[in-house]
Each structure stands twice: as C-alpha cells, then as structure tokens.
C-alpha cells in the first residue's frame, strides 16, 4: 500500500512520525511525506530518503502577530496544493502526527475520501488535532484521556503509546565521545530545546558557559540559525544547529540534559533514565501542555529532575547553573532500553493505519 505521512514544525512531531514511517517501510509499504518546503520535516524526510511533497501552511501565533491575518489564506492555498497532490499520489491512507502543516493535508485527504489517522502526544488534543479529529478515521493517543471524551470521539479513539525514535536502542556513546574528542572521564551536559532552539535559553547557557564548562563537556544543540561563531573552538564546548543520526548517541552519552518538556523529549529521557533540567514553554506562547508535562515528570522522578521557568529570572543563567548543581549528586540510572518496547507504539500505530487504509486503483505510469 501507499501511505502518506505528515507532521512538522518541530522535531517532537517529525521524529515520532518517522518512527511510524520506519515500521511501515519494514512491512513493504510505499511512503510519501507531505510538509512545508525547506522545513524541518523536509530535512528529516530527505535524511530518511522519503519522497517529499511540498504543501504551503501557516500556524496561529499565540501572541499578537500580523501573520495571523494571512494565516487563513495560506491554509486555503495549502488545502488546494495538498488536494492536487492527493489526486496525483493516490495514497491509501494518511498518517498525521501533529503540527499546523497537518491541517491542510488532513482536510485535503478528507475531501478526497482518503482515511486519516492522527496521533496526539500530549494529555489533550492540540489545535491541529482538534480540527482534524472530526474527519479522522482513527485517533491514536499516547495515554488515556483524562476527561471522558464525547461519544463520537470515543468510538474512533485507541491508546497506542508514544512512538520513540526508531534507533533509540542503538546508541553508541563511545562513538560520539571519540568523534567530538571528549575526555573519557568528563561528564557530559546535553542541551537541546526543540528543533528551533530558544534564544532565551541559548543566551542563558552562553552567559554561564565558563561555569558549565568547568564541570561538564557541554554539547549544545541550539537550533537553526542560532550558532554563535565567536564561541567556536571554546574548550569543552560543542555547538550544533541539529544533530540527526548522532542524536541517539548524544542522548546515551549525556549525564545530564537541559531541555524543553515536550512529550517526545520526556519519553526519550524516561526510556534512558536521564537526569534532566526542564524548561517548559510558557503559557504565553503555547497552550500550556509543557507546563503540565514537566510537573508530572518531576513528580515521577523526584531527585533526578528540576523544573525552572522560562521567564525573566532565566536571564543571566544563574537559575540554570543552580539547577544543574542540585542534580550533580543525583543517582544516575541509565538503562539500556528494550528494542521491543521502543518500537511497540510505532508498530501499533502502523497497524492502525494499515487497517484503516482503503486500497485504491492507480493509473498506469
């Protein structure tokens, strides 16, 4: 069968989507990825060697922005482009992982009578998934809904778990330590705050870089366009826009992680038993899901997790260093994840996608 994949805007959407894609590929299905040209999903799909179809899209800014006025027109253009691509590609089903690019793709699939399967990582449906839920054939959840869903939604809902990156069980920390030239006895601090990075967190880290480098080898994944050339060559500091194949090795290598509190990030940290300083996205620029995620994660891992707020107190980085020092003596409990557990959710979602698919006749090429 031919399955279309869509999802984007952040690695938290794209990485799980590609985990499902890997399971679909293993069972011999043809794939095509729908996303925005030049985006993170475009880059990741190319790395995974999945053919890409470009779809214009725009999201709703949760703060005042003139771009919100253009957003409906961009979405309409995206629906038109996605509908033309659907007719050309003729997929048997669409799997949508979240992010605003999924809205025009999902609507176009519904208009073309192609089954749509969506997945939600967080405790409640995000805006894109709330829009698509009515049109979806299946709604896959990472965990049971906390509130009783309406009957129409309950009928199509299945709890599948959250797909982890497909190579999470194959990390080789020694490979990355050797590649970067990190001393064998050095503790490693890994900083990654989403695929777009965070200017406030990057500034806080760099303002305290001397203090951090005294204790750690610092690997800083700062997001596209956020490199600081003046820090190139700083002893004990390595900065990258993204880590692709190396990200699994970096997660295994890290003794401590500073990161956001997206559901995908937390699932990876939990699977590997990592100590973490979490800086959830504030409610002023999000729907507040990361605040809830971080609070719940810190309760489950008391002693191995600190949560600090992304507010004015973060400036200067003092609270960041203090949180790292508080975890310095915490018990490290790295565990090698079971590959069967890693692939369980992605395999379940792939099965749901294939069971919902409608094989379609295709024109001879």
TrEMBL record:
InterPro entries: GlcNAc_MurG (IPR006009), Glyco_trans_28_C (IPR007235), GlycoTrans_28_N (IPR004276)
UniProt catalytic activity: di-trans,octa-cis-undecaprenyl diphospho-N-acetyl-alpha-D-muramoyl-L-alanyl-D-glutamyl-meso-2,6-diaminopimeloyl-D-alanyl-D-alanine + UDP-N-acetyl-alpha-D-glucosamine = di-trans,octa-cis-undecaprenyl diphospho-[N-acetyl-alpha-D-glucosaminyl-(1->4)]-N-acetyl-alpha-D-muramoyl-L-alanyl-D-glutamyl-meso-2,6-diaminopimeloyl-D-alanyl-D-alanine + UDP + H(+)
Domain spans labelled Glycosyl transferase family 28 C-terminal: 188-328
Membrane topology annotation: Peripheral membrane protein
EC top class named in words: transferase
Keyword hit for S-adenosyl-L-methionine: no
Occurrences of domain Glycosyltransferase family 28 N-terminal (ranges): 3-139
Record: residues binding UDP-N-acetyl-alpha-D-glucosamine: 10-12, 165, 195, 290
Keyword Ligase: no
Pathway assignment: Cell wall biogenesis; peptidoglycan biosynthesis
Primary location class: membrane
CDD domains reported for this sequence: GT28_MurG
Entry GO MF terms: glycosyltransferase activity
Coiled-coil intervals, chain numbering: none
Cellular location(s): Cell membrane
Family, similarity comment: Belongs to the glycosyltransferase 28 family. MurG subfamily.
Role this protein plays: Cell wall formation. Catalyzes the transfer of a GlcNAc subunit on undecaprenyl-pyrophosphoryl-MurNAc-pentapeptide (lipid intermediate I) to form undecaprenyl-pyrophosphoryl-MurNAc-(pentapeptide)GlcNAc (lipid intermediate II).
Name of the protein in question: UDP-N-acetylglucosamine--N-acetylmuramyl-(pentapeptide) pyrophosphoryl-undecaprenol N-acetylglucosamine transferase
Annotated source species: Streptomyces hokutonensis
């Amino acid at each position: 069968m031919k399955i279309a994949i869509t999802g984007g805007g952040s690695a938290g959407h794209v990485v799980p989507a590609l985990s499902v894609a890997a399971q679909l590929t293993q069972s011999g299905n043809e794939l095509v990825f729908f996303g925005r040209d030049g985006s993170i999903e475009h880059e990741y799909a190319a790395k995974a060697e999945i053919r890409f179809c470009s779809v214009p899209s725009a999201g709703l800014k949760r703060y005042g922005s003139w771009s919100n006025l253009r957003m409906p027109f961009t979405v309409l253009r995206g629906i038109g482009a996605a509908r033309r691509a659907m007719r050309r590609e003729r997929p048997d089903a669409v799997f949508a992982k979240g992010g605003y690019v999924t809205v025009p793709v999902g609507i176009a699939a519904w208009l073309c009578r192609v089954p749509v399967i969506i997945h939600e990582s967080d405790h409640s449906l995000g805006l894109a998934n709330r829009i698509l839920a009515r049109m979806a054939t299946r709604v896959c959840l990472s965990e049971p809904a906390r509130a009783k869903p309406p009957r129409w939604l309950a009928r199509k809902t299945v709890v599948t778990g959250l797909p982890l990156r497909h190579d999470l069980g194959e990390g080789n920390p020694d490979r990355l330590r050797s590649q970067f030239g990190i001393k064998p006895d050095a503790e490693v601090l890994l900083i990654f705050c989403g695929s777009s990075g965070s200017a406030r967190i990057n500034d806080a880290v760099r303002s305290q870089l001397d203090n951090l480098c005294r204790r750690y080898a610092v690997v800083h994944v700062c997001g596209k366009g956020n490199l600081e050339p003046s820090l190139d060559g700083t002893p004990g500091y390595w900065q990258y826009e993204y880590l692709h194949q190396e990200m699994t090795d970096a997660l295994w290598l890290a003794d401590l992680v500073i990161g956001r509190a997206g559901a995908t990030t937390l699932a990876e940290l939990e699977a590997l038993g990592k100590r973490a300083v979490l800086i959830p996205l504030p409610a002023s620029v999000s729907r507040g899901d990361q605040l809830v995620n971080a609070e719940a994660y810190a309760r489950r891992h008391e002693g191995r997790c600190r949560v600090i707020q992304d507010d004015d107190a973060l400036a200067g980085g003092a609270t960041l260093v203090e949180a790292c020092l508080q975890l310095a003596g915490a018990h490290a409990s790295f565990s090698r994840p079971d590959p069967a557990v890693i692939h369980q959710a992605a395999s379940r979602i792939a099965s749901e996608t294939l069971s919902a698919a409608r094989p379609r006749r295709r024109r001879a090429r």
